[in-house]
Amino acid sequence: MLSDLLYRLRALFRGKQMDTEVDDELRYHLEREAEKYRRAGFHSNEAVRRARVALGGHEQIKQQSRDSRGTKFFEEILQDLRYAMRSFARTPGFTALIVLSLAIGIGANTAIFSVTSTLLLKPLPYPAPDRIAILWLRSPGIGIPQDWPSPGQYHDIATQNHVFQDTALAIGGNFTLTERTKAMKVDGIQAMSSLLPMLGAKPMLGRIFLPEEDQPGKPATVVLTYGFWQREFAGDPSIVGRAITLDGEPHTVVGVLSSGFRLNHEALPTISGIEKPEFFMPLDDDGKNPSNYGSENYNILARVKPGVTMQQAQSDIDVIAGRLRQEKHRDRSFTISVVPLIEQVVGNVRAAVLILFGAVALVLLIACTNVANLLLSRAAVRQREIAIRAALGAGRVRMVRQLLTESILLSLMGGVAGLAISALSIFIARKMHPGNIPRLEELGMDFRVLGFTLVISLLTGVLFGLVPALRASRVDLTANLKAGGKGSLSGGLSIRHDKVRGTLVIAELAISLPLLVGAGLLVRSFVRLANVPPGFNPQHVVSMNVGAYGPKFKDPITRVQFYQQLAKRVSRLPGVTATGAVSALPLTSTVGWGGMHIEGYVPPANEPELQVDQRSSTPPYFSTMQIPLIRGRMFAETDTDKMPPVAIIDQKMADRFWTHGDAIGKRIRRSEDSLWITVVGVVGVVKEYGLDTDSRMVVYYPHAQVRNGSLYVVARTTSDPGATTAAIIHLVNAIDPDVPVYDVVTMEQRVQDSMARQRFAMTMLSGFAGFAMILAVIGIYGVMSFLVTQGTGDIAIRMALGARRASILSLVFQQGMRLALAGAVVGLVGAFGLTRMMSSLLFDVTPTDPFTFLSVLSLLLVVALSACLFPAGRAMRIDPMVALRAE
Amino acid sequence: MAEERIELPQGTLDLLILKALALESMHGWAISERLQQISREALQVQQGSLYPALHRLQRRAWIKAQWAMSENNRRAKYYALTPHGRKQLGIEINAWRKLTSAVGHVLDMA
């Protein structure tokens, strides 16, 4: 009832005024009553007395009136809050300590929750995103789980499936934009006209592609993304209809997409590693050719029909794949997998995120335990105050409520501070872009996050407040009032007298141990990973992609000449000791591979066609990168297109096909009908994809014979790599201003970046574990201090009876270590269970690595021991005379 | 005061207050006096019951209160029936009549 609520609210906020009114009213009543008696003939005083008797207790009536206003409950809460604030103000340091630990606990949880919520819970920003899938090929013979499909496979899938409402083929590429005077490398997506509608992309200006626009013979058109239009064309509203020059060809801009549209590498992992496309254009002729089975460089996105599950789609595609295996593929083991798009985007970070979430939850649990312990200590101090309130008639429920109000108020303050902390950490995370975490730009605070914070704040308030409240409210009146509030001194120095606090400390240790073990395992993994030799020497090597493609370089000879000229001038730069170039640099997202035939080797019938990584490089590439030559010779300047074709293979390939060093002089070719190429050298294995990933076999060709149009230029320097980098970019511009330079990163940085995800997980978990340990140590310290204070009398008596100080010391240590050991045992059991879930994050370390377990265990025991040190020292210094007199 | 007192059944006081206020608005003392008179001194309303009841009725928006000058020229709080309260009075009187006649029947039978 609205009026009821309004009345209660008014009564709540204007309670004082209403009380005065009741006073006035009662006084008036009393007067009239007295008047009545006076009129009946009583004396004035007697009349008033009679009136009072007739009316009953003034205060009591007031209280009853107040109760009937229905605000008692709220008033008591307000009272409790006021009381709580007063008691916080009396102990500001203590309050700050509690609020701070809760703020860190809640803040970390909020931050990780917002990551979890953004990555795993928030739907992708496309219409009905759970019906979009990405299709991958998988051939067990090829060492990667997700292989890009070809246009031929796309056409077979698109025409034969029964489950998709829409399908689209797309490929990413680097283009050279020539606007004004400078050439610039830009990333774009070539796609069928069905792609943008499938992803719900809406034009802000102009239109998106027409269905017939990806057919052959149509004029070259392009749709720009909002960001690209803003950045490069200053948001020019007249852009639609204008032509821009891409790769030397004019392309008419037909539209600009709205600003909300996003398509990242995570959702469309193109082979050329397009992080974020700047524009879209219709697919070129290669992509439209259904018989193109060779170039497996494409992405297939598909939207399942309404009501069709991903499993049903997969079974339908399995049938098609079965047919393709029979009709078109040598590879009898090849399959096509339908991967829900969300799985594609967050699949490989899900484990890490969930583990971090679990870890912060544990940290919060420890923080709660600690706060509970602090509150218990305070309750011990406040026993006299509580006893007085109990003596004044406060019921137990009322007192538990008061204490719970305090703890919930604390946790809400912690929650507010925690929100600030998490907002700050999200800000930092977005700035740092820690590792390749998808969807990070979507990260932020929203109502879901705020709601989460509120709920965990309330929960923690109840969680850490309940035990102390229940315990503190169970008071022994006489004992406490008599002991003068200091608590009993004859409690004895034993944890047995304080089971609750002891249990809390054991719990803290037990919870922090799995965290420490998890962090330890990640640190050990990371150290192992960082020590994996990459197969080259990354120190002092600058690297950048220099793209000699486009219309000027139609004749491949001109590319060779361009890179030769560039190499000549780079090698003359001061501080450059060597320079070379390669088509695909290790640890970049650039890849290149293809079929390989080996003279005299016939693959078994059920084995897929041999696929190897293939690169073209200039002769000094190997010496610049310090990739060791194992056998044979390096490329020479004389290995030109006038000379017989040669190749260098890596040790992995040599080991597979030619043991005992007889690879030199053997012949290979790229397809059935191409030229035979002679192997002239064997080089060391290079980590191409990541330090934690085994490489595939690699074949290198001399660039003069296989003339790629885009090479990574590397230079080994003795001086400042920054200056050298700038000088090389300057040289490229001087030779040909239309050649774009991009992906400028030192090799050392590439190695670091390749470990970014592991480093992120390790840093985060170590941070949480460290925090947990600090809290646990504070917990042990607090309990031991408390025990020593409580047991002062006991210790004094022992000393007075002749106990040596050493035995007092060992007594304290024994108590502390008993707690530590109990916690460690429980924690070890938990750790064995929990670390198993981490195996996907570990590298070269088992989840039960005994070294890590033992180190963490000893660390924890040492730390626990030192936490007992101060209380033990204090116990030792107790002067029995002083202590006993105080008693 | 030796006269016999009647214990009011739960909720009856509310009904009586509403009835008393149906004629005119009154202050608290007048209500208690009126009830005492009309019931021929059988009902003596204690302040301890009267004022909580008045607050309860206000909360339900059946009566409203207002400070005004009393007959002896003093400030007093006057209570008046709201339209909602008037309707409620009708309902309560009906219910009471039904109850008493039903109880009466049972008693007469026995």
Overview of the molecule:
The complex is a heterodimer of chains A (887) and B (110). Chain A contains 28 helices and 22 strands. By secondary structure, chain A is an alpha+beta fold. Chain A folds into 4 domains: 69 residues, no CATH class; 217 residues, no CATH class; 150 residues, no CATH class; 190 residues, no CATH class. Chain A is elongated. The radius of gyration of chain B is 15 Å and the shape is globular. The N and C termini of chain B lie far apart (34 Å). Chain B has one domain: Arc Repressor Mutant, subunit A (Orthogonal Bundle), CATH 1.10.10.10. Classes of the chains: A alpha+beta (887), B alpha+beta (110). Chains A and B meet through helix 1, helix 2 and helix 4 of A and helix 2, helix 3 and strand 3 of B.
Greatest interface by residues involved: A-B, 27 and 23 residues
Main sheet characteristics of chain A: 8 strands, mixed
Assembly category: heterodimer
Structural class determined from secondary elements of chain B: alpha+beta
Terminal CA distance of chain A: 61 Å
The general outline of chain B is globular
InterPro entries (chain A): ABC3_permease_C, ADOP, MacB_PCD, Macrolide_Exporter_MacB, Perm_prefix_1
Organism (chain A): Granulicella sibirica
Family (chain A): Belongs to the ABC-4 integral membrane protein family.
Transmembrane segments (chain A): 94-121, 351-376, 408-429, 449-470, 760-783, 820-839, 851-872
